[in-house]
Amino acid sequence: MKLVKHIANLGYGSRKDVQWLFREGRITNAAGEVLYADDPLDHDDVRIDGEPLDPPPGLLLMLHKPVGYTCSTKDRGRVVYDLLPPRYRLRSPALSSVGRLDRDTSGLLLLTDDGQLLHRIIAPKSKLPKVYLATLAEDLRGDEGAVFASGTLMLEGEKTPLLPAGLEVLGPRSARLTLHEGRYHQVRRMFAAVGNHVQALHRERIGGLPLGELAAGEWRSLDAAARALLFREDAA
Ligand code: URA
């Protein structure tokens, strides 16, 4: 790929905008020598105004999504992309959220520009556990764990029953729920199916990857070790 296209794809501007950066001599190598639009691509050696380039394609980010943000790119309100560097919204291939969290749900959200990786995480057959903390409007009845574990619970409008899910009761109105699939508003609909209402929902973990110490609104890029944790076989 031409250097100019690579830089444009990273969100630094249109190809025309980037051509101007070249003309103005703002794109150099690490030694400070001016580069030209058709120079060979060596990502790590490029500087714009002396700064290294944003990471190349192949990003996997984890974000602590706060309540009040949507995962859509089109929503008029606050969107998760507002929490990332502005250029990240302009990248090609685009950075997409890996599944979605509702506006009112907080917690661990992954974003990637790697279509294969995205598929590997959300494909039904991957069955990566997703762990949620739910705060409920009503006291638990006591039979929810059995209902959710049954593998026969049918949500309204669905054609197949839910896969067995794990429930850990933490208090009269709080529980940790582990799902191995991701259907629309699944947690809220599951509790509605047992006569309750989710007041607050927070995703703690995907696969073996916990949200950890990341504060609401913070994000970080995942390295190979964190990616391995995500797919760890023994994460249940
Ligand atoms: N289930 C829900 O109901 N909402 C979410 O955001 C995620 C899972």
How would you describe what is shown here?
This protein has 236 residues and is of the alpha+beta class. It has 3 domains: 3-52, RNA-binding S4 domain (Structural Genomics Hypothetical 15.5 Kd Protein In mrcA-pckA Intergenic Region, Chain A, Roll), CATH 3.10.290; 60-124 and 208-230, Alpha-Beta Plaits (2-Layer Sandwich); 129-206, Alpha-L RNA-binding motif (Alpha-Beta Plaits, 2-Layer Sandwich), CATH 3.30.70. It is built from 6 helices and 12 strands. It has helices spanning 3-12, 15-23, 115-122, 144-149, 186-193, 224-230; strands at residues 27-29, 46-48, 51-52, 60-65, 96-97, 105-112, 130-136, 166-171, 174-179, 198-206, 209-210, 219-221. Strands 4, 5, 6, 7, 8, 9, 10, 11 and 12 form a 9-stranded mixed β-sheet that branches. A 3-stranded antiparallel β-sheet has the order 1-2-3, with no helix packed on it. Strand 2 and strand 3 form a beta hairpin. Helix 1 crosses helix 2. The longest helix has 10 residues, at 3-12. It is elongated. The two termini are 42 Å apart. 27% of the residues are buried. The model has no long low-confidence stretch (mean pLDDT 96). The structure holds uracil. Uracil (URA) binds at residues 101-102, 105, 185-188, 201. Uracil binds at residues 101-102, 105, 185-188, 201.
- Distinct small molecules bound, one entry per kind: uracil
Compressed to H and E, one letter per element, the order equals: HHEEEEEEHEHEEHEEEH
Number of strands: 12
- What is the end-to-end distance? 42 Å
| Sheet with the most strands, sense and barrel status | 9 strands, mixed
Radius of gyration: 22 Å
Level-1 CATH class name of the largest domain: Alpha Beta
Give me the CATH superfamily of the largest domain.
Answer: Pseudouridine synthase I, catalytic domain, N-terminal subdomain
Helix content: 10-25%
CATH architecture assignment name of the largest domain: 2-Layer Sandwich
Shape: elongated
Number of domains: 3
- Uncertain segments: none
Number of helices: 6
The fraction of residues assigned to DSSP E strands is: 15-25%
The SS-based structural class is alpha+beta
Q: On the 0-100 scale, what is the average pLDDT?
A: 96
CATH topology of the largest domain: Alpha-Beta Plaits
